[in-house]
Amino acid sequence: AFKNCAHEGRIIAEEHKNMAKSYADLKSQHQNSDRETQHVVESKTTELLKIRKTEFQIKRELRLKQLVEKNEDILWLMSRLEHYEENIHKVEKKDV
């Protein structure tokens, strides 16, 4: 009976060792999965930030282009105004 108990004890100890190894393997797989997930999240976050930065740059360039066009329009209007003022002065001199 004692031999049987010792044999059973060795079997239980072996099963316990195998379960501990399985648990360690699962824990390692879980950690690897967590690292991979974290890497994917960081990669996607970086990608999203690049897209947003590009989006911001495009909006900024468009706004600058609009401002340049408005500035050109204002300069053209100012030159026309100067031209009209010169003509008004010429007409006033003729009238005098």
Automatic annotation (TrEMBL):
It comes from the Eukaryota. This is Uncharacterized protein. It comes from Panagrolaimus sp. ES5. The lineage of its organism: Eukaryota, Metazoa, Ecdysozoa, Nematoda, Chromadorea.
